[in-house]
């Protein structure tokens, strides 16, 4: 085999080879990698493949200007993954499904794409300064996948990828959904503050995303998740039956604030049937007429939710009114029907006394 290097491009002159031989096995030989636990194939064009040993951080650079592949030969665990350069990194299996576990940060400036049988799991801080972390056809997350998505980062599910009850907290970042038409995927938790992107691009396409729990904001603070994206296709967004989402409400000297799910203009259809919405009220006591918009959809919210007000108690004579929630996403405080009737009778008696 003859090798020539021209800039960042490595050229190979090979005799007759099989397709598998077009990948270089970087797991053996001259880098002191622990080949008993870590085994990769590297496509020509990736340089400085500082692949981790026994849980270390991996640093991978692609200066080719185009996407390049790393093929997992085994299940691998790492404490971080950093990818830089001018081209994206595709991580695939070798024909048999593999799991990549990252307990730490995923950073860098280029797209990292999981596909073809790779599951990414672990407790992951996604803090890329540019580029996406994307799941393409055949890749997945699972119930052990916990993502904290930083303000400059985007986590995206595409095609036939599977969420499999992963949890996503947005720390100013975005969660983009581009699942295959007709598919259903479940996320265990969606929370924090950030953007929920409808990335469908075909008219008439509809996919369903089930969310077991909304946890807007962090550590009891008020939070907002706002929808954006294309109106070319809709998502059915379902808050799962039998699960509970927390919505924080606050009254500070008459200034009312609350967690808010802003689904925008026809980007998502919201179904809350069988879901429990737990209200957590802090600050000053509420008065009659106070109202909070928990969700905005432009279309009616479908299904019947149960509201848990055990942490949002009102003064005697007041009650919660949920009658407008399905129409506008709004809940409000009104006089209890009995109290209003008593006030009416008292006023009528006062008028009678004055007439005598």
Automatic annotation (TrEMBL):
The chain crosses the membrane at residues 333-352. Pfam families: PEP-CTERM (PF07589). The keyword Membrane applies. It comes from the Bacteria. Coiled coil: none annotated. InterPro entries: Ice-binding_C. Residues 334-355 form the Ice-binding protein C-terminal domain. Keywords: Membrane, Signal, Transmembrane, Transmembrane helix. Residues 1-19 form the signal peptide. The keyword Acetylation does not apply. This is PEP-CTERM sorting domain-containing protein.
